[in-house]
Automatic annotation (TrEMBL):
<dbReference type="InterPro" id="IPR026282">
    <property type="entry name" value="MJ1563"/>
</dbReference>
<dbReference type="InterPro" id="IPR036390">
    <property type="entry name" value="WH_DNA-bd_sf"/>
</dbReference>
<keyword id="KW-0238">DNA-binding</keyword>
<dbReference type="GO" id="GO:0003677">
    <property type="term" value="F:DNA binding"/>
</dbReference>
<dbReference type="InterPro" id="IPR052362">
    <property type="entry name" value="HTH-GbsR_regulator"/>
</dbReference>
<dbReference type="InterPro" id="IPR000835">
    <property type="entry name" value="HTH_MarR-typ"/>
</dbReference>
<keyword id="KW-0804">Transcription</keyword>
<dbReference type="Pfam" id="PF12802">
    <property type="entry name" value="MarR_2"/>
</dbReference>
<protein>
    <recommendedName>
        <fullName>HTH-type transcriptional regulator</fullName>
    </recommendedName>
</protein>
<keyword id="KW-0805">Transcription regulation</keyword>
<feature type="domain" description="HTH marR-type">
    <location>
        <begin position="26"/>
        <end position="80"/>
    </location>
</feature>
<dbReference type="InterPro" id="IPR036388">
    <property type="entry name" value="WH-like_DNA-bd_sf"/>
</dbReference>
<comment type="similarity">
    <text>Belongs to the GbsR family.</text>
</comment>
<dbReference type="GO" id="GO:0003700">
    <property type="term" value="F:DNA-binding transcription factor activity"/>
</dbReference>
Amino acid sequence: MIMTEKIESFVMHCGEMGSRWGFNRTVGQMYGLLIISQEPLSAVEIGETLNISRGNISMGIKELQSWRLVQVSHKPKDRKEYYSPAGSIWEMAIRVFEERRKREVDPTMSLLRDNLMDEPGNEQERYAQEKMGEIHDLLEAVTSWAGELQDMNPDKLNTLMKLGAGVSKVIDMKDRILQNN
């Protein structure tokens, strides 16, 4: 694949964003390249395009597979494996959110639940448990909401996101109506 200035800019940016998504720069670059490639790419094509070693490509593909972000395909009479994004951009976003929840939120929720089950030993621990309870409740609400969003089809998600602050205005209007009654 030939990297134009625009394509290279996007791929490099995906590398920088990779660390924010939960994987390293090279894996982010690989995924960015796969997202914008019209055809599936072989490991050799990925390596030549990004100028990275076969070993890094192999490890990167395994990482992307563990996140369920790539799919493998084969071409007739060709022994090479070809890689492409697994699903739509919406499905990719949902998978990244889901994997981040498993890797970051779930262990935090587990720790909070364990700490909240213990009796506080003193006033300082009681206060700390109150704050941990607030964090737990917030994470539980966000996790529940995110789960509901994951079950929506992309068209409904897109409509919901376009509503944006409009949803807040409807809630404010409902509150005013209830206060006047």
